[in-house]
Amino acid sequence: MSPPGVVDQRFESLYLFAACRPGTDETFALALPRVNADAMTIFLEQFARQLEPGVHAVLVLD
To answer: How many domains does the chain have?
Structure first.
């Protein structure tokens, strides 16, 4: 639910989902049109595909 108020409808929103590996230059990001469970599932699936086999990742969401 969005807060009430005047909204500029001329522009569409785009949301950045990103992950990085601290201490390295390794990053992964997707720009998606929504923030919801489906978008997070897409991000996690794509992120998992780029990991080397046998690698485990810990994600901290903020």
So the answer is: 1
Q: Is residue 55 part of a domain?
A: no
Q: Which residue has the tokens 């080397």?
A: 52
| pTM passes above 0.85 | no
Q: Which residues contact 12 (CB under 8 A, 6 or more apart)?
A: 33
- Does the residue 24 lie in any domain? yes
**Does residue 58 register a pLDDT over 70?**
yes
Q: What is the C-alpha separation between 55 and 62, in angstroms, rounded?
A: 22
Contact 35, 15 (CB under 8 A): yes
Encoded tokens for 28? 């992964």
CA distances from 24 to 6, 19, 20, 42 (A): 42, 12, 8, 24
